[in-house]
Each structure stands twice: as structure tokens, then as C-alpha cells.
Specification:
Blueprint (H helix, E strand, L loop, with lengths): L5 E3 L23 H10 L6 H11 L4 E4 L6 H13 L16 E4 L3 H14 L7 E4 L5 H9 L4 E4 L1 H9 L10 E5 L1 H6 L3 H10 L5 E6 L4 H10 L4 E4 L10 E7 L5 H12 L4 E4 L3 H13 L4 E4 L5 H13 L4 E4 L14 E4 L6 H8 L9 E7 L4 H11 L5 E2 L12 H15 L52 H5 L6
Parallel strand pairs: 1-8, 2-7, 2-8, 3-5, 3-6, 4-5, 6-7, 9-14, 9-15, 10-12, 10-13, 11-12, 13-14
Length: about 475
């Protein structure tokens, strides 16, 4: 389409078979230190995207990798980076001997942390150093790490530019640039930051772009900084994972929270991510589920980084069963054995549906993707089905009785609605959702009457006496004399 070489599952390199089980990581010629780390992780056979991308990246070629979420894109670029940087690895304590040589950009803090954890695991037996920088946290620990010298930096664009401005990091020796989930970065408005970062890098470098989807905007960005890239696609663009079972349930908008609670109870689900479109909606749903006796927590952009990390850690440990999240968590969460995701709200952007349900059914496992929608969401559902080129099966909620949500918040809302329906608002009172009225002091109505002149015996009021004329000042007296009479 762009005149670039295209490598798909039907057109791959001759030394790699289509079936990933027919090739092993040991066949790539990776260093013993890397192979040892892969053995520690229990990795033997690469995924399709890994089998096709790693050999090309080891040749130093620019690559655009398109693969659905959960197929192992991180290892696809991390392993070649580590392999190519081993030529510069050293054990010197001098920061100058450890300049930044590889830069990985990620759209969210969660994804950056996930990539950093994987990179650290893959290069733990090598002298290479890596670190992650992202916003919402104190810059001082990040600054100390950067100034001590690191070869691989994983960063969100905004915080990276903060460190650049404070001269905590130099990008003058970067040899490899990776944009992970590049389409999400554009959606979040990072394009100006990306252009600034690219301008700070050496002109001669290897560029890698990995994402689950490629929009026209992404293709335009890729053409501006990729050099003769090879495009690798292991699945149809915007395709959903085959092992994920999808279903949608139609309910009244007011009963959506009841439906979520019913599904969680009926299926006895644990380790579930529930997606909401709004921060306040995520918080309300989490509080309501907690009031129902469920172990639930919310994660969204208004939470501090520490709160988000604590919630994710508790969820991974099984201390929290239900994580209610906005799309800030739709990318970057790598949770093994996640059996189900629930869309409390259908996403406004159809592509986010692919990323949301990609949280389950990862690495060949099966999973369920459940969505709840109402009449007002018909257009959103139609957009999703058009994007994924398939009809999502409709289901019925057996045994579902609306109105069972027992949270104090819901009861408070209902009582308030009934009370306000029975009477009209008093003077100065406002209805729920309206803007607050300014406070008014009590005023005696006598002061609000128009002025009426006083009358006596029916006669018109006498005119007010004229004010006495001010005597003229005798100027001559002031000048030292008086006029003669």
C-alpha cells in the first residue's frame, strides 16, 4: 500500500515456518545471556509476531509491526535491542560508559512499566542497564537513575521531555527508537511531543513501530521517520483474538450497574476488568460493587500514580477481584490468566474495543468479553461491528431482576428522585445536576417598595422647601478691600 515490503503470515522469510511451534528462540542465534533469561521465563517457542520480527530486526532494518494485543510485541523488539547492544556492554561504573542507546516510547505509565519489567527480565544476565521514566511520580529518583548511566530507557513522551529540559538525559547517541502503541499516542495528543523527541535523535538510527492498529495518521507519521521499513502483519488489522468469546447484553441504561453485579455473581467471576468511559463512572461503579460485598477498586487518570500502582499490584496478587478502569488501562496491562473483561460502557472509539477485549485471551489462552449496552449505544455497537467485520452475538441475562443494586449511593439517588418528584423546588433551591445558586441574604420587603411621597388630608404633598442659596463669596474681601457703597 505504501510501496514498502510486506511480510505477512503467508509471506515470511524462508528460514521461518508459518507455525511458531516449528521454530525456537534458540534458532535466532541470540547471546547465551539472553537465552538464559528466556529459559528462566520458560520461553521456548516464539509467537508469530516474534518469529517474524526478531530476525529482521537483528539485521538492523526498520519495521512496522501490526499484531493484535497480547501476542508478544514487547519481546519482538526487546530481544533484538538487547542482542544488538551487547557489543557496547561493559561493567564500568562511569556514567559516560553507559549512554542512552535505545529509547522506547509508550503512551501510558502502565504500559511503560510493563515494558520496563520485561526488558529488565530479558537483560538481567547482561551488564546492560535499563530504567523507566513517567509522569505522576517524583523526578528525583528517576534523575539519579538516568545520571548514573543507562543504555535502555523506556519513557512516556511528556516526562522524557521534562528530563531533557532539565538536562538529566542526552539522546545524542540513541541508535534505536521504538514507538509502542503509536496509534494510542496520537489519540492522546502526543504528536507534538513525538516530533520534538525525533528531532533530538541522531539521523542515523534504527526505527521500530509496533501497534495493534494502524490508522491513516499513523501511516503518515511512519512515513516521516521510518526508512524503507518492512511491514509485518500476523493478523488482519483490527481483528479480535479468535480465542475470545464475545457477547453483548441489552439492558435499560438505568439497570447497567445491576447487570454488572448480576454477571459477576452469577458467573462467580474473579480477576475481572470492567471498563467505563468516564472517571466518575468508574469510581461510582467500584464503590457500588464494594457496597455489594465485592472486592473492587477503580483505576483512572484522577488517581495518583501511587494509588494506581497499588490497585494494579493488589489486583495481580488476587487481593482485588474486580478492577474498574477507564481506557487508561486498556493498553499496557499484562495480567496472566485474566478470564474475562466487561464493557460497562461501549467505547466511543471502536478501536478501543479491540484493545479492551485484548486484555483477555492472551498468549493462546481463552477468555470472555462481555459488553452491556442500551438503546443510546446502538450506533457505537454498529461502529464496532463494522471495524471488526463481524456481528457480536446478542445474549440474554437469565435470572436478571433489575433494581437489585443495593449500594447506598443508588438508594440515595432513588430516594432523592422520588422526593423531588413529589414537590416543586422551593425558592432558592436547585435541582440535582443544576448549577448552584448564589446565596441571598434575607431582605425586609418594606425596603423593596417604590417611594411614595407623604400626603395629608387628601391634599397633594407640599413641595419640599428649596435649599437656601449659598451666599456668594466676596472676592474683594479676599483681595484686601471692599467695594465702596
Amino acid at each position: 500500500m505504501w510501496g514498502w515490503p510486506l511480510l505477512t503470515s503467508k509471506n515470511c522469510m524462508s528460514d521461518i515456518e508459518n507455525t511458531p511451534e516449528q521454530v525456537k528462540f534458540a534458532d535466532f542465534g541470540l547471546a547465551p545471556e539472553i537465552q538464559r533469561a528466556l529459559t528462566d521465563q520458560g520461553y521456548v517457542h516464539p509467537t508469530p509476531i516474534q518469529a517474524k520480527a526478531i530476525p529482521i530486526l537483528l539485521q538492523g532494518r526498520d519495521v512496522m509491526g501490526a499484531a493484535q494485543t497480547g501476542t508478544g510485541k514487547t519481546a519482538s523488539f526487546s530481544l533484538p535491542i538487547i542482542q544488538l547492544l551487547l557489543a557496547h556492554a561493559n561493567t564500568s561504573m562511569s556514567p559516560a560508559r553507559h549512554p542512552v542507546r535505545a529509547l522506547v516510547l509508550a503512551p501510558t505509565r502502565e504500559l511503560a512499566v510493563q515494558v520496563a519489567e520485561n526488558v529488565a527480565a530479558y537483560c538481567k544476565h547482561t551488564p546492560l542497564r535499563s530504567t523507566v521514566v513517567f509522569g505522576g511520580m517524583d523526578m528525583k529518583p528517576q534523575t539519579e537513575k538516568l545520571r548514573s548511566g543507562v543504555e535502555i530507557v523506556i519513557a512516556t513522551p511528556g516526562r522524557l521531555l521534562d528530563h531533557v529540559e532539565q538536562k538529566n538525559i542526552s539522546l545524542g547517541q540513541v541508535q534505536m527508537l521504538v514507538m509502542d502503541e503509536a496509534d494510542r499516542m496520537l489519540d492522546m495528543g502526543f504528536l507534538p511531543d513525538l516530533q520534538r523527541i525525533i528531532n533530538l535523535l541522531p539521523k542515523k538510527r534504527q526505527n521500530l513501530m509496533f501497534s495493534a492498529t494502524f490508522s491513516p495518521e499513523i501511516k503518515k507519521l511512519a512515513s516521516s521517520f521510518l526508512t524503507d521499513p518492512i511491514t509485518i502483519e500476523v493478523a488482519r488489522s483490527n481483528a479480535t483474538a479468535e480465542r475470545v468469546t464475545q457477547v453483548v447484553y441489552k439492558v435499560n441504561e438505568d439497570h447497567k450497574r445491576d447487570a454488572v453485579a448480576h454477571i459477576l455473581r452469577q458467573r462467580e467471576l474473579k480477576q475481572v476488568i470492567v471498563f467505563s468511559n468516564t472517571k466518575i463512572g468508574a469510581s461510582r461503579l467500584a464503590r457500588g460493587l464494594a457496597a455489594e460485598g465485592m472486592k473492587a477498586a477503580a483505576i483512572h487518570g484522577d488517581k495518583t500514580q501511587q494509588e494506581r500502582m497499588q490497585a494494579l499490584d493488589a489486583f495481580k496478587k488476587g487481593e482485588i477481584d474486580v478492577l474498574v478502569a477507564t481506557d487508561v488501562a486498556a493498553r499496557g496491562l499484562d495480567i496472566s490468566d485474566l478470564p474475562c473483561v466487561i464493557n460497562f460502557d461501549l467505547p466511543y472509539n471502536a478501536e478501543d474495543y479491540v484493545h479492551r477485549i485484548g486484555r483477555t485471551g492472551r498468549a493462546g489462552a481463552s477468555g470472555d468479553a462481555i459488553s452491556i449496552y442500551s438503546d443510546k449505544d446502538e450506533r457505537l455497537l454498529a461502529d464496532i461491528e463494522k471495524l471488526i467485520k463481524q456481528t457480536v452475538p446478542r445474549g440474554t441475562l437469565d435470572g436478571f431482576v433489575p433494581g437489585g443494586f443495593r449500594s447506598d449511593e443508588r438508594h440515595g439517588d432513588r430516594r432523592r428522585d422520588r422526593t423531588q418528584a413529589d414537590r416543586a423546588p422551593r425558592s432558592g433551591e436547585r435541582r440535582e445536576g443544576s448549577s448552584p445558586l448564589p446565596r441571598r441574604e434575607k431582605v425586609d420587603p418594606w425596603f423593596l417598595k417604590p417611594y411614595e411621597p407623604t400626603r395629608s388630608n387628601g391634599a397633594p404633598a407640599a413641595a419640599a422647601p428649596a435649599a437656601p442659596a449659598k451666599p456668594k463669596q466676596k472676592v474683594a474681601a479676599l483681595l484686601g478691600g471692599l467695594p465702596k457703597g
